[in-house]
Amino acid sequence: MSQESAIESFKKFQQSWIEQLQHNLNHLRSAQHHYRNSVTGSEVLLREAVERVMEHCREYHRAKCATTEKDVIGVMAAPWSSALERSLHWVGGWRPTTLFHLVYTESSILFESRIVDILRGFRTGDLSDLSPSQFRVKFVKGRTVSELQCETVKEENAITEELSEWQDDASELVMGTTSDVDQRIRRLAEIVHRADDLRLQTITGVVELLGPLQQAEFIIAAVELRAGVSGWGTSHDRRRTSDI
Question: What is the reported pLDDT for 137?
Fold first, then answer.
């Protein structure tokens, strides 16, 4: 398979993947609704719906990993993304620490909107039950969201430094003064793999730290954020093209 066909194949995969993601999200919303209404067996259905989305994320990770092996430069260029999305990219994709900002923001918004009920002692099991300060002290499965965030920031910084070192040496590729082009490209692929692994590890880690309803709310918010950025970016590209 040529490099061009590898990228084209991934573009097609991504289109179908996004369509299936929306289908899985609708299923998750339905399971969330049943859970909120205490329907018998709803917790099992909700957990299954969450796992379906997570497996879908793992499928994307595997497909991107295979494409990166074939054409890492094409993956870094991300021709399937809008200009806005590419401007926000970090090592070929979204920055993992964005997820923590999303968790804290969603938690704060819900906490403020339901503060009266919370002060009365009512608990819904959603993200409003955990304020940002509670996230820092709540231990689940041996660690806190804050600890996971610190680990992610540390790994992000290490990957950023590694990419910076690769870019510092890139002038030799452009000038043709190096004979180990394949080795340099391979090193870049390893950096992208490391970044993609961190993305998957981070979203998996966050989900594991939350309760069933919180997991659903977090996933829905993350997908909606992605869709919003993609939609706005695509619209902006179309307007820019029409103005030329």
Answer: 43
Question: How many other CB atoms are there within 10 angstroms of residue 103's CB atom?
Answer: 24
Residue extents of the structural domains in the chain: 3-243
108-113 long-range Cβ contacts below 8 angstroms, 24+ apart: 108/132, 110/217
Task: Please report, as a single letter, which amino acid is at residue 117.
Answer: D
For residue 41, name the pLDDT band (cuts at 50, 70, 90): confident
In the block, residue with structure tokens 């709540």 = 138
User: Which of these, 87, 61, 16, lies nearest to 192 by C-alpha position?
Assistant: 61
Contact 230, 85 (CB under 8 A): yes
Tell me, what DSSP letter sits at residue 129? G
**184-236 pLDDT, tens digit each:** 899 999 999 999 999 999 999 999 888 888 899 999 999 999 999 999 999 98
DSSP 8-state secondary structure symbol assigned to residue 128: G
Q: CA-based diameter of the chain, in Å?
A: 70
- The CA–CA distances, whole Å, from 121 to 80, 115, 124, 137, 199 equal 48, 10, 10, 19, 36
Q: For 23-37, what is the mean pLDDT?
A: 94
What is the number of residues in the chain?
244
CA 130 vs CA 30, 77, 123, 171, 222: distances in Å:
23, 39, 10, 49, 18
* pTM for the predicted model, two decimal places: 0.84
pLDDT exceeds cutoff 50 at 133: no
